[in-house]
């Protein structure tokens, strides 16, 4: 199990950009999957993007394709979410999650991730 800490959230105007970071500590493996999820008030937790530490596999929700980019720095045990062309509907608490690939049947299912950060608030004004 790893410990995760998100940072980089804040208030931004529609059309602007933010870069979120997720720093992982503890034992990590090249077979781990790192995911970003978000949750708006009154809504269920929603998949945003995921990346494998190795292998180059990346997954995005349809709602963020072409606007968000997920990346990682294996040496720093950090995953990033670059968010461009932000919309008011992107407003939510964003969470970083991690799980060994062998324990996942779907990277978009938040219920299958065992490690979570505390979340960071992203607010997009219109």
Strand-helix topology:
Layout: E1 2-7, E2 10-13, E3 18-26, E4 32-39, E5 46-52, E6 58-60, E7 68-73, E8 78-83, E9 92-100, E10 115-116, E11 120-125
Q: How many strands?
A: 11
Structural Rg:
14 Å
Proportion of strand residues: over 45%
Principal-axis shape: globular
Taken in chain order, the helices and strands follow as EEEEEEEEEEE
Summarize the biggest pleated sheet.
Answer: 7 strands, mixed
Explain what the structure shows.
0% of the residues lie in helices and 52% in strands. The protein is mainly β and 126 residues long. It is globular. The model has no long low-confidence stretch (mean pLDDT 93).
Keywords:
126 residues; mainly beta; seven-stranded mixed beta sheet; four-stranded antiparallel beta sheet; 11 strands; 0% helix
